[in-house]
Write a structure and sequence with these properties.
By secondary structure, the protein is mainly alpha-helical. The chain is 54% helix and 6% strand. It is built from nine helices and two strands. The chain has helices at 22-32, 36-45, 51-64, 69-77, 84-100, 128-136, 141-146, 149-163, 173-184, and strands at residues 6-11, 14-19. Strands 1-2 form a two-stranded antiparallel sheet. A hairpin with a 2-residue loop joins strand 1 (6-11) and strand 2. Helix 3 (51-64) runs antiparallel to helix 4. The longest helix is centred in the middle third of the chain and has 17 residues, at 84-100. Pfam families: Phage_TAC_11. InterPro entries: Phage_TAC_11.
Length: 191
Amino acid sequence: MSRDGSIDLELGANTYRFRLAIGELEKLQEETGIGAPEHLHRLYVGENASWRHVRAILLVGLIGGGLGVSEAHAVARGLDDMPAVRAIAVAALVMAAALEGAEDEPLPHRASKKDDSEPLPDGKMAFKAFYEAAAVMQLPHDDMRKMSLWQFHVYVAGYNRGQNPDKPDPLSDQEEDALWNWLNEPMAGAA
């Protein structure tokens, strides 16, 4: 996996670069009606995965990886001639690369897990938040759309740290669990 969300994979007889940055994830969601996390889930568990969606993931990923539109469509048309399992595996890896980022440098822990907004159906991502954050940071939306999720998250974290450099880091998942366990321990001597 990479920080820019790109991954080089064999598809058929060739190796291609695939990339689903924020703009490509938005386009994919608009084309399929399903968000990236839901696509990844469906590909991993093998339920409700659609060949049309596999083709869309690979097509948009090829274009995001730098292949010309005509060439990407030619590759996508050739998917019918290859084993479906291979195409599904490649689509899952492309989607995972877009969502997970760099393995050696995981995303910082989110400061707040509370989100008062209603989740969107079918695992859709709310892109409004990306545009709002970009506006606050005065990041041109075209630049934001070219970023991977990892890059954008780190950009936001850096911006936030710059706004309040003395703010302590949020608790890690392990620290939260330890605190929760400690708070739920019975008090010594309590009946």
